[in-house]
Amino acid sequence: MLYMWKAKLISLSVLAALVLTACGGGNGSGDGEVLLYEEEVSGGAVEAAESYETVTVRREDYQEIYSDTGELEYTDIETVYIDEEDAVLDSIKVKRNQRVRKGDVLAVFHLETSKTKLEKQRLVNEQARAQFESGLGSLNNSLSQAEQEYKRLSKKSEKKMKSLEIKKIRKEIEAYKKGEKELLDQEKAYATLVRMQSKTNLVAKKSGVVTSVSRDKVGEEIDSSQKIVEFRNNDKWLIKVKDPESMLRYNMSVSVRLGKNMKNYEHEVAGKVVTASDLTGTDETDSGGDKVVYIDVNDADKRKYDFESNNIYIHAVSFEVKDALMIDARAVDTESVGFTNKSFVWVLENGNLHKRFIVSNYKNEKDYLVAQGLSEGQTLAIVE
After folding, report:
1. Model-level pTM?
2. 368, 343 in Cβ contact below 8 A?
3. H or E stretch covering 106
4. Using an 8 Å Cβ cutoff, are 227 and 80 in contact?
5. Which residues pair with 259 in a beta bridge?
6. Contacts of 276 (CB under 8 A, 6+ apart)
């Protein structure tokens, strides 16, 4: 229910001037003066003697733009370690930013295993080999003896029993021989240990570009946790960008610009948001706690353009409505109606304020997009 307050008695000429001033604030932003009276006015119109800032209902294409810098994050990184005990790093054969191929020598090391340890391992292997050969020989003798006995038998029933015995022994021999694999592995490890007492090459298992080397570790004993060389595949990367307001969504198309700045760029290619935090509900954050998402471009563009040497900028239309009715958010207020909150505005017409409920299909801190309740060109008063 709208109420009006009687204005102070003023001359007719002053009143007329006030009304004319109110009518003059109908287009654009400005001040509309409205007269307030005490008694209720039919139709919900209220006149006021106060001065209000006014805004106009406008029609335009609405866009929310995401714009920020990006950086490459490589996804195929190889870290090389020496996974041996008693290893000493002799030299590193590559340098930072060097391109290496699979099989290239990255570093050289040797093992400083004591003679006592080597001799102990040799004796353990020899004893294990002797025990294995002895057991196998015993089974082979049993098989040979059973086969000879089988030949001397004449009764069918006795031959059948001896045949079953022979089959059993053969199965035992087959199972016994499978145990030789562990022994062979021990003998191979010993041979490798002996060989590694001299210089041993540490080779690359894939191609890439060297990103770091541990030259300060040369000449020192190395354990398996110490990184020797790290290199990456320069063709395998994603673009990482910050997105604290969640404006970028999974599978969303964006523009990736390369150049001096966002507007002065040399190349522009299509990109696609490939992280899915908006689907899984789990946000990925960087070391500073800011939410980040990742963008990919196709392999042809990765090969064609120099993403490493250029500044990278991301431009995207996060939200867009064509031909939308828009109003200043300051002109909108809400009130509780039943169990819901409804939005309303004060429409200024002929010096009167009319309360008008509206339906908004989108809003932010600055603007409301209006679906129902207003038309283009109407003037609204900002009543605070």
Report:
1. 0.56
2. yes
3. strand 105-111
4. yes
5. 265, 311
6. 250
